[in-house]
Fold this sequence. Notes:
The complex is a heterooctamer, with 2 copies of chain A, 2 copies of chain C, 2 copies of chain E and 2 copies of chain G. Helices cover 38% and strands 19% of the residues of chain C. By secondary structure, chain C is of the alpha/beta class. Chain C folds into 2 domains: 1-265, Rossmann fold; 267-380, Rossmann fold (3-Layer(aba) Sandwich), CATH 3.40.50. In chain C, the strands form 3 sheets. In chain C, strands 3-2-4-5-7-6-13 form a 7-stranded mixed sheet, with helices on both faces. The model of chain G is unreliable at 275-279 (pLDDT under 50). Chain G is built from 11 helices and 8 strands. By secondary structure, chain G is α/β, with parallel strands linked by helices. An 8-stranded mixed sheet of chain G has the order 2-1-3-4-6-5-8-7, sandwiched between helices. The chains are: A alpha/beta, C alpha/beta, E alpha+beta, G alpha/beta. One iron/sulfur cluster binds at residues 11, 16-22, 39, 57-59, 61-62 of chain E.
Amino acid sequence: MERHRLVFSGSGGQGIITAAVILAEAAVLYENLIAVQTQSYGAEARGGATRSDVIISDSAIYFPKVNQPNVLICLSQEAYNKFSPIIRPGGLLITDTRYVKTHRKVDARQRELPMYQTVMEKIGKPIVFNICMLGALIGLTDFVKSGSVKKVLKTRIPSDFLEINEKALDLGMKLGNAYK
Amino acid sequence: MERHRLVFSGSGGQGIITAAVILAEAAVLYENLIAVQTQSYGAEARGGATRSDVIISDSAIYFPKVNQPNVLICLSQEAYNKFSPIIRPGGLLITDTRYVKTHRKVDARQRELPMYQTVMEKIGKPIVFNICMLGALIGLTDFVKSGSVKKVLKTRIPSDFLEINEKALDLGMKLGNAYK
Amino acid sequence: MNENLKFIQGNEVCVEAALYTGLDFFAGYPITPSTEIMEHMAKRLPKIGGKFLQMEDEIASLCAIIGASLTGHKVMTATSGPGFSLMQEALGYAIVAEIPCVIVNVQRGGSSTGIPTHVGQGDVMQARWGTHGDHAIIVMTASNHQDVFAITVDAFNLAETYRTPVILLFDEVVGHMRERIFIPKKGEIPLVERLRASVKRGVDFHPYLPREDGRLPISDFGGVNRHNVTGLAHDMWGFPSDNPQVVHGLIRHLVDKIQNNTHKIAKYKEYYLQDARTILISYGSAARSALHVVENRRSRGEKLGLLELQTLWPFPYYLVQEKCADAKYVVVVEMNMGQILQAVKVSVDRPERVFLANRIDGVFITPTDIRNILRLIEGKGV
Amino acid sequence: MNENLKFIQGNEVCVEAALYTGLDFFAGYPITPSTEIMEHMAKRLPKIGGKFLQMEDEIASLCAIIGASLTGHKVMTATSGPGFSLMQEALGYAIVAEIPCVIVNVQRGGSSTGIPTHVGQGDVMQARWGTHGDHAIIVMTASNHQDVFAITVDAFNLAETYRTPVILLFDEVVGHMRERIFIPKKGEIPLVERLRASVKRGVDFHPYLPREDGRLPISDFGGVNRHNVTGLAHDMWGFPSDNPQVVHGLIRHLVDKIQNNTHKIAKYKEYYLQDARTILISYGSAARSALHVVENRRSRGEKLGLLELQTLWPFPYYLVQEKCADAKYVVVVEMNMGQILQAVKVSVDRPERVFLANRIDGVFITPTDIRNILRLIEGKGV
Amino acid sequence: MEEPKLKELVINRDWCKGCGICVHFCPKKVLELDDNEKAFAKRPEDCICCKLCEFRCPDLAIEIISSRGTARRAPTKGLLL
Amino acid sequence: MEEPKLKELVINRDWCKGCGICVHFCPKKVLELDDNEKAFAKRPEDCICCKLCEFRCPDLAIEIISSRGTARRAPTKGLLL
Amino acid sequence: MAIRDYIRERFFPHIWCPGCGHGMVLNGLLRAIEKIGLDKNEIVMVSGIGCSARIAGYVDFHTMHTIHGRALAFATGIKMSRPELKLIVPMGDGDALAIGGNHFIHAARRNMDMTAIVMNNRVYGMTGGQYSPLSGYGTMSTTSPYSNIDHAFDVVELSVAAGASFVGRTTTYHAKQMADILGQAIIHKGFSVVEIMSQCPTCFGRQNRLGSAIDMLEHFKENTTPIGSKAKQKNPDLIERGIFVQKKMPEYCSEYEKIIERAMVTVHHRDRRGHREYN
Amino acid sequence: MAIRDYIRERFFPHIWCPGCGHGMVLNGLLRAIEKIGLDKNEIVMVSGIGCSARIAGYVDFHTMHTIHGRALAFATGIKMSRPELKLIVPMGDGDALAIGGNHFIHAARRNMDMTAIVMNNRVYGMTGGQYSPLSGYGTMSTTSPYSNIDHAFDVVELSVAAGASFVGRTTTYHAKQMADILGQAIIHKGFSVVEIMSQCPTCFGRQNRLGSAIDMLEHFKENTTPIGSKAKQKNPDLIERGIFVQKKMPEYCSEYEKIIERAMVTVHHRDRRGHREYN
Ligand SMILES: Cc1ncc(C[n+]2csc(CCOP(=O)(O)OP(=O)(O)O)c2C)c(N)n1
Ligand SMILES: Cc1ncc(C[n+]2csc(CCOP(=O)(O)OP(=O)(O)O)c2C)c(N)n1
Ligand code: SF4
Ligand code: SF4
Ligand code: SF4
Ligand code: SF4
Ligand code: SF4
Ligand code: SF4
Ligand SMILES: [Mg+2]
Ligand SMILES: [Mg+2]
């Protein structure tokens, strides 16, 4: 298996880290893969581009950080400005249309998805934005199965919120597939 | 000048340390000698034989403690029991008749003086017992002049107590001379 | 799904391992990057009937667990640099009174408040020498979650074996990183339990007199052997003494029981040392980058090896000497200004072949950093 | 009688020397055997219009003097082992925020509460490494009252020169012993005064940007150059930054400003080293017994010498190496389990010729103790 | 004294974090959040210059400049911003 | 109940430090200090067994054994010391 | 001067979360200072560690961001060494009363002239939401996941008992009262304590399901009442706001001046030291 | 059992000075324990450092002589881990309220069942006579040679404000009251504080010219009065003795039992942690 190096980025409160953890956990618990997740804690709330790195692989991972991601997700303008230069050529860059105005070309597949908008239109709860993003990622790629992610959601999300989360995941996947 | 190594001992509250300090200070400030004074602080009040070491000399003193005193003063039974074995052969051992019952011979000049008794009879204030002892020591030896000690007393004792201290010193000197 | 397979933070692994040993008492005060340890304890302990206490500060936390240890419990506290500095007086007490307990320091960057959310390994020497007076101490670390688990269990075992506090010196990367871990089954890792005095009620009991095998039985507060615990120099009954012989005996005992057992205490891992011309020595999260470089270069046929230390103190001088005897270069990889470097230099013959590959700016040291330094050492320039 | 001749305790000498430098602020918490320092301060300071504060504990004492230093005063606190352990967090703050201040630790015996009224020198490594994170520190000591005076003045001078806390590491014997001292006249020992920023109101002021000569001007709180002081990693204005370059620069600066000036900072005394076959290395009160032995043996024609260290940290490795180059035996005389011994071993070629003459039982090491050990080293048995 | 009159309602958009406190507690409902979650004066004409918004803004992002009030700098010199 | 009667007034001379507290506060002036500054019962016959001396002694050096009081050990077993 | 002249604009926007009460405390404090008309050079602000403590970086006074819990000890040294300076010591509830509780009560006891502000959000905000000694029984936090059994201090009662000569309390909602009480506290000669109930929507609000910052401010409005109000008699659960203590008492630095005078004329003779020398 | 059965006779005579009040506290405490009839194995005594703290060495319970000021923190760990044990924590005034003040107020706040005894001799005895936070204005000590300007805490008021559910005060002179209050404090379920004014003739007495231990005891007799007495109305300077607070309040260990019950049935899902992670 090819080694996947992902960087999730955005601003505090968007659920970036949770999404990264869910993905990696799904890979480890349900797909017998190896994964490592780290995050950088910003001192500042303002301008604090939150970042979480995930590596997924079928062989041992030592260095746990991602220098050049082949998948980069940016959910805020600051995050985009800060991290878009580090994407690995040929990689995948996912941004949200509501939050990010892309302003330069990178040598990568660039996908600007209306994830926030979709969530607000179809579910109306911004809290599941991150799960929709995860769905989109799965839709666009295929290294983790959506079923695995759903299993993780079941263990992490209180039952009364489970449905909207699953719905958000499905919406995201559709979006991802559509923009594939 | 011969090097004088003194150990003052007794129980807490008898003013052992003050006496040792006054003697050494007199030697340093008024007789141009070199002196070092140390003391051991016992953890315990009971059975705590207080001890203060003084070395007086006209040349540099490095090691500041006294292993074998040539003058040993014991003002309590515990102090006597504990320290009498360490006196240097040929030295001088001074004890107080009220507090110490000597029970063995040491190879030293042994002087049992009624210092406490004299103080109580002539002055009536136990607080100057230590100064009387100092007087006796000066009376018995001669390495520090009484005038020097009196000068120290003037700087250390509030004026209303000075007289009885000087008197105690004189009484002690007489006693010392008498038992010489 | 394997029930025992988990994908969690290093801090949580530490909690799981502590619970595995039977820990049922934790007291702490939050501080980044160790806070998750206490947060998980707060969740987990009540569920198993254990006790969780949030104290007013770090020294109170350590005092509280020392107290709880005396009633027979396995105990732990967790903190980071500033809190660890505040614990030093109580740490000395636990050493002198010989109280088993485990103190976790998840290191962050810098001295003073420093760079709280960033990584560093600057507390290595403090862990050894932070409290006043002569003493010895056991300090352990690990670089991945499976090892964090094993070493944490080990820390509790050593604390019981030697009746002493043990420091777990992790770092921000290990503490916050999530990776997979298989939680061992009960019984899979042997546990050392508290050795309790077997004397009957009324029989003279010596809480500070080692047995033939060196271990010191203890009696729980609340049991029949009442005894006294003090930080003053004390005799074999635990009562204060300033008798020089007693004092000498006590201090030698405290140091020797650990120093003389370095062979038994020292844990390490080695990778490709047999024929290594260049040996990296590393520990904690830095060892991950070191191992990355080693695997990488080995795959290119270069003779690189890694000695990963898991016991930092007592420092296994003999081990380092032996392993490095034939190496041309020894490169210590750590995230400080060379705290283990010094110990390595003392261990080996020809200390001039020992180099330092480090970072001190709060950024996790990368394989590239190490490679760049290796090139310089080998005379190849930038 | 000479007005300047006094017969006083070492603790009092330290007070007189501090006042000589212009100290006018002291805060402390009593602890044996340092208490007389604060008691004399309590008497002396109000008489000269200075400020004396008894705080609620040791860390508060250190915090208070750091605060007072920022208003431009020369400041000091004094304690012993347990209190010094409690100060460690605030000590790190003073180091990182670069606040001149002097901290006296009059060492007592043992770790933890230990043997409070007895002597020991067990806090040497703690003074170096007690606070968390990479840092450097200046630690000075002395063995007799005239030197206690000079070294105390020196400590204040170094604190100002390098804008850093300086530790005075005395011990019970030096602190409590009385011997004669000549108090130097005003001007006899040069004083280093606080270097104040000369920028005018409104001009950009960089409290953390060293001048060409390495010194860092500071501006007093209450003056016209308002600035920020923090224990977080900070930039040249004193504002928090976790920029890796800034962090790196700060930590290197803090360490280098001291380490790179070891030659200037290191004070020592030497006795008969030119032709010495056996060199004793000692410091603090232990050096008195060592000197006693040296004088004694020299008078018998034996080639003994003494290197008395007055600066313990930064350790003058180069000096020890140079002085000991030709000696057959090097014997470190100290009252701990060999804390300076390690540094000496690292300094010299052929560390196998370095021996330890020590005591750890609270009893002051005697010339006889040293002689007995010398005989054993020389192969002459007991 | 004369009723104060609003001269300018300054909102520092770089500092405003869109918490909505000013909006919610304005007695005259003068303020609203825009699409970018920054406060703005929707109905400045209703403002009674009570300055509660200015006093409560956690980000020091609002300033009410009224005929009676404090101007941004050196108002004593009569500067009108 | 019958008036208590003093059986024995035990003073532990090894523990007594001669502070004189018992002497001073005894309502019946039963106690005095001897030449060695140890307390002793000068007038045991006056003792009313109030036990104030026993309760106040800082050195636990006095024990009043009365017809009604606590004997030194195991009084329930009827032992008279 | 406008309040903008009292801040270091280049560090804005500040690091606090949207709606954080700490910004409102900063706002109120600056207004109080502006009203009194203090010069920037005569004010020293000393803070500890916490979200609250970051306030010191934003004001253009002499500022000191110290270590957790010890701000008052640093401030004591500054004030004592330079009594003409005005000391303002803002602290979080954890900073002031968890790790810093001892310095707090001792500072109150000494009655040295300075103003301690407790920015009470009932939680450790900076470390992500653990309970504090002011959280109170029944609150939720990351370290009281089954609800808190620790009782809270009453800051006012504790300050009074410890000896503070000025004690007030208000909330961030009561912006004008806040500026007013802070102003009076700063002018007061002696140790003054002002507790300001401050919302932390991110940690305390979220975990205790208290809604947004706005909801929390409404809560302050509804659950507090002026000291001695009728409302309080009807509903004793209401928290009182206002100035509880404001009394003239000898101030420490002034007292020390007298010590200096006395010392200048005293001649000492003998040590009055007891014989104990231990531990 | 006789009180002799509660002590470790081999360490007697004890180290305290002739006439020291601390011995009288030991005496009274043993009588209280004897009266309650506790078993030696169920009592844990934890002390700090000071003359007072040496009390732990003399009693034949489970004993712990810890570090200066932290006794209550150790005791908290012991009690929490083994709630069936009786915790008695004697402390000097410096130990309890100088360096130990924070642990004191927090222990009071938690209301964990234990008995804190403040052996208040108004001085640091062990280190030879420095003033303590209970010495009070105008007293002499080696560190207040020109007389003390520090105000004293009122232990009773501070304990009450901090939350103690039992608070009493008496003196060594009042031996029977002392035993009685101590007994009630020990039986009380919750955190109890008993302040016992104790004479230190060696340090406090000497420096303040109060005469012998006997004189100091007379002083206690004359300057104290039962709570609410007429004498107090006439002379407000009199110090009141007795039990000030004795109230039923949830005890910490019992409360924790409820947490355990609740935890056993709770299922957790998501971290409720705020986003802050810092300092
Ligand atoms: C010695 C030490 N212990 C712990 C910490 C971690 N820490 C930083 S801030 C803080 C508490 C913050 O709570 P509070 O004082 O209430 O301030 P807030 O963030 O809520 O404003 C803690 C525990 C630290 N920095 N230093
Ligand atoms: C950390 C620390 N600081 C200071 C000391 C020194 N010390 C020992 S006991 C004591 C105070 C004793 O006073 P108090 O608690 O009132 O007890 P007392 O001796 O008066 O009974 C002090 C300051 C110490 N042992 N440890
Ligand atoms: S109160 Fe301030 S930060 Fe909040 S929305 Fe209004 S202007 Fe913006
Ligand atoms: S000044 Fe008053 S009325 Fe005007 S916008 Fe602000 S809150 Fe509304
Ligand atoms: S009270 Fe006790 S110690 Fe004092 S004199 Fe009487 S018996 Fe002796
Ligand atoms: S029992 Fe009462 S009357 Fe008898 S000796 Fe003691 S104090 Fe005096
Ligand atoms: S975490 Fe809470 S206290 Fe901290 S800035 Fe955010 S809202 Fe304010
Ligand atoms: S110094 Fe004071 S407190 Fe200590 S034993 Fe002596 S009289 Fe008691
Ligand atoms: Mg808070
Ligand atoms: Mg006391």
